[in-house]
Write a structure and sequence with these properties.
With 145 residues, the chain is α+β, with helices and mostly antiparallel strands. The protein contains six helices and five strands.
Length: 145
Amino acid sequence: MQLAQINIAEMKYPLDSPEMHDFTSNLDRINALAEGQPGFVWRLKDENGNATEIQAFDNPAFIVNMSVWEDPETLKEFTYKTVHAEFVRRRKEWFHLMGKSHYVLWWVADGHRPTPREGREKLEYLHKHGATQAAFDFKKLFAPA
């Protein structure tokens, strides 16, 4: 089993605005960093090499990031202990704070590539039911079934 994740963000400004420049100008660098990390398996991307144009939600201001990792530890290491953490800390410069969880984790079979719809459904499940084996977060991890 491998760990899938989706995280979403609602942009405060259009993606091509000057206010989003620090975020957008670093996408390729951060994506390359992720792909080179131990435990990285796959990430959602379009023909431009990122997922900012992929619409998984009705609100066009929502952007999505999805990836698959070998385990929670390697994802957590990338998220919070590399230069990526700087962008996590700066999140509120570019994105609205969400009143509920903006990410969810779940286990998938080796080789499975989750769809944006699957990720959206897992996030909605987490919002409705809280952390369970089916959908969880770093605060309450579940081992593969």
